[in-house]
Fold this sequence. Notes:
Blueprint: H1 3-10, E1 15-16, H2 21-24, E2 29-33, E3 36-44, E4 51-52, H3 54-68, E5 72-80, E6 92-99, E7 108-111, E8 116-119, H4 120-123, E9 126-130, H5 133-142, E10 144-150, E11 154-159, E12 166-171, E13 187-193, E14 211-216, H6 222-227, H7 229-245
Parallel strand pairs: 1-4
Antiparallel strand pairs: 2-3, 3-10, 5-6, 5-9, 6-7, 7-8, 11-12, 12-13, 13-14
Amino acid sequence: MGLIDELSDAVRHFRFGKLDLLDRIGEIGFHPTKGGVLITNWYDYSPENQHGDCGELAVKAYAELKKKFPGMTFGVYWGNDPYLFNQAVGCHAVLIAVGDGYVEKNSLLVDPSLKVVAPLLESGYSLDRAEPETIVRTKINNRKIPLELVGETSTFLGQSELNGILFYLELNNGRVWPNVPDSSEQLNLTTFCFPSKDDTILFPGGMPLFMKNTLPISPAPMEIRKQAPYLELAYLLEIKARECAGVKPLPL
C-alpha cells in the first residue's frame, strides 16, 4: 500500500458536518454579545467525536496523523477546493503533509472532509494561509470552543448526503419574512446547491455556478425535518436562540 492509500485510510472515518450537535444540543448555549450571539461548546475537537466542519476535522486529523506517521510533518491550511468551497462560497481547511521522501514541491494535500488525498500540485486546491501550530494545539487541548456569530457572518452546518446541498446558519438580523406571520426568527438557514460535476456551468474565472437561497427556519414542518437532519438541527438551534432572546418559543 502506498503512502497516499495509507493516508486515505487514516482519514476515512471522519464524518463531515455538525450532526453531532443533535446529540450535544443540551450543552449548547446562546448568549447575547454586542451585535451578535456567542454559542458555547459549538466546536468540539475531542478525538472521540469524529464529526465536524472542515476546520474541526483538519485539527483532529492533524492530531491523529502526527501519531500514525511520525516521519512526516503536517500543517493545517485554509484555502479553496476546485468545486464546492470556491472563493464565492467560502474557505476550506485541509492538511498539507511533507516527509517520507516528499519535498515541498511534492507536498501531499489531505482533505479529511471531502476525502481527497493527492499531490498538492495535482489536486486543484489553492491555499491562502496556514493556521499557526500554536492555535491548532490550543484547540486540541481545550477541546470545546465557542462560536460567535456577528453581523452577516455564517457558520457551516453540513452537506446533504442525498443531494449535496450545503447548509449554513446565520443570524436573522431583524429580517421580516412575509410568509412567516408574527415571526420571531433569530436565525436563518442559507443553502448552496450545485449542479452535478458532469453538468457544471462555470462563472467567469472558472468557478462553478451555484444557486444560493436564504430561508426562515421555523416554518419547516416536522415530517420534512425528520427527512432532512440539517433542517432538524437548525430548528433545534432556533429553539435555543429564542430561549436566549426571550421571544416566542417554538414547539418541539
